Structure formats: structure tokens, C-alpha cells
Amino acid sequence: xxxxxxxxxxxxxxxxxxxxxxxxxSDGGKPVADCFVVLHNExxxxxxxxxxxxxxxxxxxxxxxxxxxxxxxxxxKAV
Length: 79
What we know:
Blueprint: E1 18-19, E2 22-24, E3 26-27, E4 30-31, E5 36-39, E6 48-52, E7 58-60, E8 62-65, E9 68-71, E10 73-74
Antiparallel strand pairs: 1-10, 2-7, 3-4, 5-6, 6-8, 8-9
């Protein structure tokens, strides 16, 4: 019998539930590259959500807390 433990990603206690979120930034209809996008969520204090846009103005947002980062944004109200 083989027992495997610790496989996969362990989400830290208290890390918020996340949903996928991709944004597109444009100016006058043209994509904006290298734009730093930050979301502030009042229900996920202590966590940061951010990304940088690519050459097409698109960014897939990721949330960080401590030394852990995961793709997605917390559910809740953005401020």
C-alpha cells in the first residue's frame, strides 16, 4: 500500500474563495500594455489582488496573502 500526503496545492487557512477574473484595459480603443491593475475588496482585507496587462491589454488577476498566490479574485464588494 502506498500513502501519499501533501500532494496538490494547500490553501492557507482563511484564504478567501476565488473566482476567475480577466480584465482588458484600453485607451481610445487601443490596448494598454504593462498597466498595473489592482482590485480592493472590502470583504478580503489583508489580501491583495493584482496583475499586469500584456501586449493585448489583458490581465488575469491573482490574489496573494502571505507567501501564497492563487489565480482569481475574492467574491465580495470591490471598493
